[in-house]
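Quick question, first post here. What does this chain look like in 3D?
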Amino acid sequence: MNDIDVFEADLNGQDLRIAIVQARFNED
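> Answer (accepted):
Ran it through. Tokens below.
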């Protein structure tokens, strides 16, 4: 479900947000 957040972040061009989402995903 986090893939949606990553997709939105990519559309916004916010690499930082992508990194944060991936970090949280790895924690899980």
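The chain has one domain: 1-28.
The helical segments are 2-12, 15-27.
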